[in-house]
User: What shape does this take?
Amino acid sequence: MFTCRECESDINQGTEICPQCGADLTAPPAGAEAPPAKPGLKKILIRWGVLLSVLLAAIWSFLWFVVPERQGDPTAAAEHLAVQSLQEVHAALSEYAAAEGGAYPRQFDALGDRGRGAAQLSQSASYQLQYTPGPVEADGRIRTYTLQDKAGNYGFRNFFADESGVLRATRENRAATAQDPPY
Assistant: This one.
């Protein structure tokens, strides 16, 4: 049993009004502090807005840090690297031919680091560089060659070059040839 705070009579715990004195037992006692008021809707919305803003800023900064920057057209960038590698190989072959009296190498490895670097540049753009020496002439020298840079992705251009230095390209799903238009 409990007692009424006004008349100190024994009362039931669930009683809201004292049956002896009629005191309202649900009201806070005199002199006691009122319970703190619940925050209003505006305050709740501001708190959630600040929380969501901080959360979105954290996600954005994480993605900005993790996701690599993409600039421009990736197809054009890959094709540019393929053309650059073909030009580098053509320059290396021209230097080789100048040093060897107009003859080209039988193997691509004869171009050394310069040739390997160009092939790696081509591979970094998902292209495959292929060197094909021409036929061996009567004097034992090779005077022609072809270069093909084949795209690993559908829709990218395939490139072709020979000793003339003219670069040819096609968007068709086949290797480029000497009959394709100049790039």
